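Sanity check. The docking grid for zinc ion depends on where the pocket ends up, so I'm generating a full predicted complex first rather than guessing from homology. Inputs follow.
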Amino acid sequence: MRVADRWFDHETVDDGVIRIVEPHVDPFLRGNMYLVRGRERDLLVDTGLGIASLREQLDELFERPAVAVATHRHFDHTGGLHEFDEVAVHRDDAESVANAEGFASLRIEDYPPEELGGYDVGQSLLTALPHEGFEVGDYRVHPAAATRVLDEGDVFDLGDRRFTVLHLPGHTPGEIGLWEEQTGTLFSGDCVYESGVLLDEMPESNIEDYVASMRRLLDLPVRIVHGGHDDSFGRERLHELIDQYVAKRAL
Ligand SMILES: [Zn+2]
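Predicted complex below; grid placement will be based on this.
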């Protein structure tokens, strides 16, 4: 397999919001990271798989202090946390992240077939390697201890922007969203993203909590949602996704 020229791509998706992705990772596993530029400090929402170094490869983006937040415990969001001095994770996912617990693999044969749909075993989840000699089978996630343990209502103050923590359990117990009232901006993690293929049957998931979290989002005067996967979307699509989910799961 060829070695990638650059591991990360980034583009501005809204005022002061840069989306960072790992284009050589199969869409099945490819998550979004978002860097929010603040007057005094930056906020990094999720950190990808940790296959390559964010700090080294995107040094022009990370020359200012940034606090790295994980929307939840899963390895496609927490891989780069260990590279940052300030790390924030919700109380109910912090221990799992600190101990690098839970499933983490780049090998397609490690995934339950029912999760994979059309994929063939033996096919790779990477379309390029981050560097010469990289071994897919050696991939591990670094443990990352939170320097700040988050609860509902906590605030990230970037100087000119303020994001409030919304506890949105369901996908995982410590799933969070980040809400900026002033601009109607929601970072929704894996609670809701554009494709609507939402995962609520993992051992750490809870469908009843998930339904309640989704219903809660109906009340937010959202302008734009930046999800943990897929493209960003607006309020109308958010309400469609919530209605679909609630119709499928609420009893
Ligand atoms: Zn997840």
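Relevant for the grid: The pocket of zinc ion is lined by residues 72, 74, 171, 190 (CB under 6 Å).
Also worth noting: DSSP finds six helices and twelve strands in the chain.
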